[in-house]
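This section describes the prediction task in plain terms. A model, or a person checking by hand, is given the sequence of a single protein chain and must write out its three-dimensional structure as a string of tokens. No templates, partner chains or ligands are provided. The sample shown here is typical of the held-out split.
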Amino acid sequence: MAGAPVHAGNLEFLNKSPVSYFNDEDMRLLKETVAQVLDDKDALAKKSWSNPATGNSGEVEALGAFTTAAGVSCKRVRVSNHTKAVDGHGTYTVCQDAEKGWAVDSTAKPG
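The expected answer:
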């Protein structure tokens, strides 16, 4: 569903982000790369992905790791994606949740 508009209220900003141009394979490659960086023991792991069929690509870079006061493991990651139409990036704090696995937690702080 590449290029499909995003209809969820406050998520309209995604209409102009690279992921709005991604197909299923692009999304699979991106998610796989994010998982590899998050699961890597290296707090500064960095991995790239690309899909020759679409020309889309990206990079995921861990910017450091920390443990919260509650003992939760977290990483700061920068995700950069590229399409022929647009480039974009974002930085996220992602923490390991016992039930959900890795999840974004913008309130997490080192303990």
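For orientation: The longest strand covers residues 56-67.
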